[in-house]
Every structure is written in structure tokens, then in C-alpha cells.
Amino acid sequence: MFQEALKNDYISGSTAIVVLWMNGQILVGNLGDSKALLCSRRTHFDQDSEAPFSFLTILEELTRDHHHDRDDEKSRSFEALAKDEGIENRESWASVNFTDVFESSWAPDHIAVVGDQVTLSLDNSSGCGFESKIKYLFGKASAQIKLVDGDSAGTVIAFYMSSEGANHDELDFEFLGNVSGEPYLVQTNVYVNGIGDREQRHSLWFDPTTDFHTYSFFWNHHTIIFSVDEIPIRVFQNKEKKGVAYPKNQGMGIYGSLWNADDWATQGGRVKTNWSHSPFVTTFRSFEIDACDLSGEDIAAAGAKCGKLAHFLWDKPAMKGLKKSKKRQFKMVQSKYLVYDYCKDTARFTQMPKECSH
């Protein structure tokens, strides 16, 4: 029921089809996720049956769905939005090629790139990881990931953004493995100036091991949104006016990794990694980076460009927070799938973090 509600909310909109038959030609126009099919109806007579029965055979699809899975539709929509918002400077919204943008950060022999898919493996000798070649300041980054199947207890798959140094900023997706038949937990975290301890954990409304799902960060001057299949699961708002630190000055790289964390990852470390099930394998694909990059020799100038308020699409006034439909999705996810929130952990904090009280 919940999943259906999410789905309906996610794809809500308008659809229409117009078909004209003129002078022996069929003219078809469609809008949205609607489909026109050319079919043939056949009637079958069965000597053992008193009445004939008929069935349809699909001969040809006459339309293509106007859906954001299509690169041309995605580009058209963004161009229209950019025009409406008066944006002259817009970064590329297309998917990126892994080898052009990323490189191995450790254990390259445990990473395999085949076509558009990147496979990470973990055994008792090593995990592995990759990182982007450049850093970004504000925007959106996403990847489709299929998690380790079966007994994944003790393992952690990470997809995250991070700057460097002890006082770094960081945004985390961490997928905490579990024993066979038990659900994955998705842990998110936000570090600002080297201080984290802002964990939330969610279960998911699907099995993340059977297919790819999209996990994304959206980051601007006003808010940080963690999303799963474009459904927001966490929002971290800019509350600097309340004395809460917010990441806005340090460019962050984009990282992925698979590693052993059986000292804490599964049931607080009580369940250890079963190495007889190794290698553990996860696959990434369909990376998208719609962000302001800090490439070039003049990093200061690039930082000034990226930090300019309302200069890019992701920092326009319409992007300050969740839209109405996304707020409904977020509320439902929080009520149904949030299993841990640091802001409610009074046993852990003698004094709650400032953002929890505002």
C-alpha cells in the first residue's frame, strides 16, 4: 500500500493521446507516460466451444513515452526549467563515463569496469574504492547501485561525497549488510568541519539486491537532500542563523567503496563477516553529476563561481526545499521506514545537537 502511494505520487501528472486517421494515414500525438499501440484482433473458432473467442496481438508501438529515463526528455525538461528560471550558466546534465570522471582510490585489482557497470569486490585480503578526479561545490550527484546479495553481514557499501583533511565536510550513504533474509539498513550522515555523529538509518521498501536503484545527493546553499529513486529520505537544512554549521565552503569529491566493518556494521558488531561467502560483490552504474566543478588551475576563481548564490539551477529560489509532492513522500518515508534518528537518541547525547532543537 505504501509503495503504491509512493509510486502514484512520484509519477503524478498529465497524460493524453490523440489519434487521427486521415487518407489512409495514422497521425498520433502523445503527452507524458502514455502509449499508443497498433493491434490486430483475431477471432478463434473452437469446434468444442459454442462461442468463438477473440484476442489482441500488438503489432507496433506508435509512440515513445515522455519519461525522464530518456536522455532527450531529461535534457528538454532541464532546458525548459533553466529558461523559466533565467539561467544562462548550466552544467551538463548527461550521464558521465566512469573512466573519464573516476579513478581507483585503493585496491584497483578488486575493481572491474565492464561497459557502463563498475563492479567492486571484497574478500579477506581487501576491499576497494574509487574517487572522482575533481571536486564539486553544490549540485546533484547520483548513481545506480545493486547491493551485495545473500549473506552480506559485516560488509558496508559506501557512496559518499567528501572534502579532505581533518576538518572535512562529508555526505554519506552507507549500506549496512545483514544476514540472509534480513533487510539492509541505509545509514546517512552529514559531517561539517570534521564533526559528524548525525546518523539516520532507514530500511527500504524494496529488495536492493535484486535490481539497480538510484541513490542521490542534492546540495545547495539552503538544503541537502538524500534521495532513493528520487524519493527523499533525509533533509538537512541550512540553519546557520541558529548557530548550526553547514557545508558550503569546501569542494567535495565523489566516492564509492566496499569494505569490511564487522566491528560495528551488523547488529552493532555482534554478527561478523562470513568469509566463506566471499567474494562479496556490488555493482555501480549510470553515474550522473549535475554540479559545479572546481577543475582548472585557478581554484579560487572556480570556488567563487560555484559559490555565487542563485547563479546555477540548483540554487534558484524554487530549489530552496522540497516541493509539495516530495514533502508528502518524505513524511511517509519518515513515518514508515526511519529506524534510527540521532536527534531522538537522548541516551547518546547529554546535550542534543543544535539542529535537533530548531
UniProtKB/TrEMBL annotation:
Compartment(s): Secreted, Cell wall; Secreted, Extracellular space, Apoplast
Q: Does the keyword RNA-binding apply?
A: no
Q: Does the keyword Disulfide bond apply?
A: yes
Pfam families linked:
Glyco_hydro_16, PP2C, XET_C
Q: Which keywords label this protein? A: Apoplast, Cell wall, Cell wall biogenesis/degradation, Disulfide bond, Glycoprotein, Glycosidase, Hydrolase, Secreted, Transferase
Q: Where is this protein chiefly located?
A: secreted
Under the GO molecular function aspect, what terms does this record hold?
A: hydrolase activity, hydrolyzing O-glycosyl compounds; xyloglucan:xyloglucosyl transferase activity
User: Where in this chain does the record put each GH16 domain?
Assistant: 51-284
**How is the polypeptide modified once translated?**
Contains at least one intrachain disulfide bond essential for its enzymatic activity.
Write down the InterPro entries for this protein, in alphabetical order. Beta-glucanase-like, Beta-glucanase/XTH, ConA-like_dom_sf, GH16_AS, PPM-type-like_dom_sf, PPM-type_phosphatase-like_dom, XET_C, XTH
Show the Gene3D superfamilies listed in the entry. Answer: 2.60.120.200, PPM-type phosphatase domain (3.60.40.10)
BP term (GO), one: cell wall biogenesis
Q: Which GO terms describe its cellular component?
A: apoplast
- What top-level branch of life does the organism fall under? Eukaryota
**Protein purpose:** Catalyzes xyloglucan endohydrolysis (XEH) and/or endotransglycosylation (XET). Cleaves and religates xyloglucan polymers, an essential constituent of the primary cell wall, and thereby participates in cell wall construction of growing tissues.
> Which family would the database say this protein is a member of?
Belongs to the glycosyl hydrolase 16 family. XTH group 1 subfamily.
Q: What is this protein called?
A: Xyloglucan endotransglucosylase/hydrolase
